[in-house]
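JOB MANIFEST
job_type = single_chain_structure
chain_count = 1
residues = 157
[input]
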Amino acid sequence: MADTRTCPACGAELTTDAPDAPCPACLMKLGLESWENRASFQPTVDSPPKAKFQPPPAAELAAHFPQFDVLELIGHGGMGAVYKVRQKSLDRIVALKIIKADIAADSGFAERFEREAKALAKLNHANIVGVYDFGKSADVYYFVMEFVDGVNLRQLL
């Protein structure tokens, strides 16, 4: 008879071939945190749902990014929001992705953000969206990326 395995975070029963990591539900709650930095992660069954993220309106965003003409909100989700913008200096359409403030408030976020942005900017492939720039404007972390017109991944799937 096989040994029963449990999620190290919440105690839920796992399959015997599951990795030594949290269950899928705990991984979703964990978000950007890495499992190695889990000391502060305490899942609670009765925790109230977080307030739904409301992306800032174009006018508010324009104040942080005078180098862009904010054209429209493309979409938003768990990480932040993506806007279609015109980069004034090069007169081209790009995507501006802003990261939600609560994610950016994490103590190790700035270092991970910079490291990951630099790694993404080195990727060059026809099937990968190019990263042109990244940074922080006031308290808003952002990526400037290639704009690809079409359906999003959720629509495609």
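[summary]
The CA atoms of residues 11 and 23 lie 9 Å apart.
The mean pLDDT is 81.
exit_status = 0
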